[in-house]
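Forum > Structural Biology > Help requests

Title: Can anyone predict the 3D structure of LysR family transcriptional regulator?

Hi all, first post here. I have the sequence for LysR family transcriptional regulator but no way to get a structure on my laptop. I'd be grateful if someone could post the structure tokens.
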Amino acid sequence: MHERELRAFVSIAETGRMDHAAKCLGYSQPAVSYQIKCLEQALGTKLFVRDSTGARLTREGRMILPSARAMLSLFESIKSVAA
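Reply #1:
Sure, ran it for you. Structure tokens for LysR family transcriptional regulator below:
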């Protein structure tokens, strides 16, 4: 699990669309899709249901979201201490 994967996951969860998340993060849409694929493989579960209207969290995705947000907060805390 990497910070970029978690950022992509949280951004998609918040926007509901991979293309919007990619724009917010400054990544290409294929890069965001790849980050989610890697995260899903690492966790061994699907995090989103994708359709023509966007991406919705699965039950597992909803369960993981608070922890992902907490991890990103910890990353930010570490960066601020190190700066």
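The first helix runs from residue 3 to 15. The chain is about 70% helix and 10% strand.
Shout if anything looks off.
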